[in-house]
Amino acid sequence: MVYLFEKFELDDTNFCLIQESRRVPIEPRALRVLLLFVQNPGKLLTKEVILETVWKTTFVEESTLTRAVAILRKHLGDDPRVPTYIETIPTLGYRFIAKVETSSRETPPFTPRAEESGDSVGEVAESGPRLEVLTAESVSRQPPGESINPGKSIKWSLLFLFVLATAGSALWWRFRHQPIREGKQTIVLSDFENSTGEAVFDGTLREGLTVQLEQSPVLSLVSQPRIQNTLRLMSRPADSRLTAELAREVCQRTHSAAMLDGSIASLGSQYVITLHATNCATGDIISTEQVQAASKEDVLRALSTVAISLRSRLGESIASIKRLDTPLDEATTTSLEALKAFSESDRLGNQSGSAAAIPLLQRAVELDPTFATAWAMLGRLYGDVGQQESSAESTAKAYEFRDHASDHERFFIVASYEMQVTGNLEKAEQTCETWAQVYPNDAGSFGFRAGLILRVFGQYDKAVENAEHLVAIHPDFALAYHFVALNQIALGHYAQARQIGENATARQFSNPYFALDRYRLAFLAGDEVAMEQVVTMARQMPGSEDMIAGQKASSFAFHGQLEKARAVSEDAANWMRQSGRREAAARLESGAALREAFFGNQDQATQLATAVLNLSNGRDAEYGAAFALALSEKSDQAAALADDLERRFPEDTSVRFDYVPTVRALVALDRHDAVKAIELLRENVAYELGSPQSSFDGFYGALYPVYVRGLAYLMMHRADDAASEFRKILDHPGIVTNDPIGALARLQLARAYLQSGDSVRARAAYSSFLLLWKNADKGLPVLQQSQLEFDRIAGRSH
Predict the structure, then answer these.
(1) Mean pLDDT value of segment 316-326
(2) Strand partners, 266
(3) What's the CA gap between 382 and 470, in Å, rounded?
(4) Is the pLDDT of residue 592 over 90?
(5) Which helix (H) or strand (E) holds 18?
(6) Is the CB of residue 667 less than 8 Å from the CB of residue 640?
(7) Three-state secondary-structure class, residue 285
(8) Using CA atoms, how far apart are residues 646 and 735, in angstroms rounded to an integer?
(9) Domains (ranges, CATH) in the chain?
(10) What are phi and psi of 229, to 5 degrees?
(11) pTM (whole model) above 0.85
(12) Could you tell me which residues come within 8 angstroms of residue 94 by beta carbon, excluding any fewer than 6 positions away?
């Protein structure tokens, strides 16, 4: 029977998928899933039914099925967000939604090409010009001192050479039939030995081979952070050159399966690349791969050839290699100089931080303006140093040239684009879900979810799961520990957050975000001594001063000490402006404008908000300024800014569901229309406990819609509803931390109790607020008003 749908034919007799008379190579299990789908079009097939039908059991891990579906979608060209063929039914299963017709005609028997017929040791995936494969015997016949003749049939002037070391043949056979599996065995890649005398190859080939091997979903390279941490434990400098000898010791200490060490040498006008795979435990050579490049321009293509063969030797199927193999010159760049700059930026970034690596990435994209991965990393590093507009511009460039990247890198590029350019985190989450299915050992998908996406959604428990999984698969990735702590704090699990921090300290990690975690935990514990210790520590940790300055200013303001908050904030903002970090300064001053507005200093708030907009119209800074203006009865200006945000960021999750509804609700309150304010804030209900993107760098905005909704209910004299909103804020201190609304919610709760006629609880809530502000600046309008209100209720109670 032949099943016809769209431009595809699925022949169950010959068990093959045909697209426009061309066979589509696809894994057998995935093809069986597709056959089940087309045999049941329009029907919901539960995961249990699919597993039992295809795998003959329901005990297979669910991730096996999701990976098979991801493979199908890739080959069918199906977008899971707007599916044409396979629709996901959350938590239940899948439905095949394309129209299916059947035919009894027989298709001609299909004769597979050599690379499609299996995955035996001798096979080589054919992608482009044919390469001559030589055996060890044929190589031995080459006259001494002569270069290997590529032959007339080789268009790229490359010759693929495979030499299997005799001493390692038995070991290789065992290794070949026990291939490396996901998350179980890993590989250490040493630095290449470069005897050509040409500096352009230094670091470049290791970077290129890394890009090639990372395309494999079944091989796992030991990460650079883990290598550096292992070197530190060996009392070696973290930036030590990874020679073959040193790499083997790292391999043994990380319990990895194999070590790869390579070299490049001149052979007349040509180049020879050699790669050895070694068993770390025994030191036996598993295999030796060698390839010759006719010119410098052919070296990257030659390296791709080595990588293809190596992936096969280490246990990956030919079908998998064909599906997930982009030649290195297409996956990165055709420019060796650009790839060298990219490689050096990675090394320098690990040693000296993001800011130091930016000029090298700028150089890489100057040399090759279509170098998509370099643009993507440049966007990421700009984001690290707070230059959000430059980050978005670079990431948009990466997205424009995403076809010049491997599938592996394309996931990173697309997810970054959805987070940093459009801000559409729903799409980013879907991308990360597919990314994790195809590359379950990648840090990126789990880091993006734990560090940003799920936090904006308010799904902190899921964020913890992703972060803990990230720690498990990449125990030397420092930020993973921060993601665990950050989300545990949001959930109120302070002991767990401290423990993960101690685990990070035991690994000798040094990261600015750990200072942020420690400061927040100390604040939530009311430990002023510990808070000051973190401030002192931050002075010795480059990159943490900005964050701690913002936190310190917020802590002063939380206790009503606005003069101290102003001094800290002004010093930090001045330093940022002088160092050219206008966007970071704008976000810091947005926080200052908000504090003034919350405390009733409308003139100061308006002045600061105006200064913010003169510095930057970045999304988060503009939101802070708009909120401050709305609180300061500058409704028209605030409404115009909300319109501008909506126009410029139509897909952005935080803008759509948080920033714009909240500012417009405040404008409605200023115009005494509380009913409209409540209606506007309905957009935020699903995300009300989330941490919008302004809370990541500006440290403001979390639970602001809840606070505004409480104000609206007070205006409507719905006291119980108002109290419920303000209690949400007080019940989630780990989300709000030291934002001033955490203090002001106590005052607003007292007003809600007073409005409901509950003078006892009102008096207790007023007392709680005034005790918190016992050392507050005396002239603050909000303090004076609250003291008058308390005095009145205290007088009535006698």
Answers:
(1) 68
(2) 271
(3) 24
(4) yes
(5) strand 16-19
(6) no
(7) strand
(8) 26
(9) 2-111 (1.10.10.10), 127-331 (3.40.50.10610), 336-522 (1.25.40.10), 526-797 (1.25.40.10)
(10) -65, -40
(11) no
(12) 37, 44, 45, 47, 50, 69, 86, 87, 88
